[in-house]
Amino acid sequence: MQARPELPTLPVSAVWPGGGVLRAALLALAGAALLAASAWIRVPMWPVPMTMQTFAVLLIGASMGPRLGAAAVAAYLGGAALGLPVLAGGTALVFGGPTFGYLVGFVLAAVAVGWAAQRGWTRRWPGLIGALLVGEALIFLPGLAWLYAAWLHDLRATLAAGLLPFLLGDALKLLLAAASLRLLQRAAAGSRG
After folding, report:
1. Which family does it belong to (predicted)?
2. Measured between alpha carbons, how far is 166 from 84 in angstroms, rounded to an integer?
3. Pairing of strands 50-51, 42-43
4. Segments in 40-153 forming alpha helices (H)
5. pLDDT digits (tens, 9 = 90+) for 19-78
6. 190 burial level (CB within 10 Å; 0-12, 13-18, 19+)
7. 51: phi then psi, degrees, rounded to nearest 5
8. CA separation for the pair 70, 77 (Å, rounded)
9. CATH 2.60.40.10 fits 11-185, yes or no
10. 156 exposed, middle or buried (CB, 10 Å; 0-12, 13-18, 19+)?
């Protein structure tokens, strides 16, 4: 019986090793494109739409690491600031809107999940699920804080609009991100050896 190859820490680095500005820029743009595409898979709700972006952010961080993950989210936000139609609402006006805090959380989550992945925590299921849960929390905490402070000014209304409708969907997206990362890790392990 042949032993399974060890899962790579970061699938992107296993498939495309090395460094360089061109590699980093292309990977960041690929991550930004995934995040932009995930914004358009949505259930329109107010004040916060339900999208596939949390799935994309978790997967980007876990597969790219903290630096490239943050660069991908920053490239996405930069495109939004330039007016590219990449946001769920289709406009850069969300930078002052009710979803602004969640966008801040995207960067925090990509860094935290990427940091955990870089240290090998995502090679085993408990570490992977734990890292993704931390990522989810880092998306929701600034999102809820901003929604409360700048828009709703009521804790119950904030939780009812900005957290409760998303719990089941985000649990499913977390599991999908975990399964997708595991597939990427296995594919990358197979490509190495």
Report:
1. Belongs to the BioY family.
2. 26
3. antiparallel
4. 53-64, 66-81, 100-118, 125-146
5. 889 999 999 999 999 999 999 999 988 899 999 999 999 999 999 999 999 999 999 999
6. exposed
7. -130, 180
8. 10
9. no
10. exposed
Tell me, what DSSP letter sits at residue 122?
Answer: G
The amino acid at 105 = G
Neighbours of 76 (CB within 10 A): 31
Domain parsing of the chain, residue ranges: 11-185
Residue found under tokens 């975990």: 178
Q: What is the DSSP letter of 187?
A: H
Q: How far apart (Å, rounded) are the C-alpha atoms in residues 86 and 66?
A: 22
Q: Is the entire prediction scored with pTM above 0.90?
A: yes
pLDDT digits (tens, 9 = 90+) for 108-130: 999 999 999 999 999 999 999 99
Query: What single letter denotes the amino acid at residue 6?
Result: E
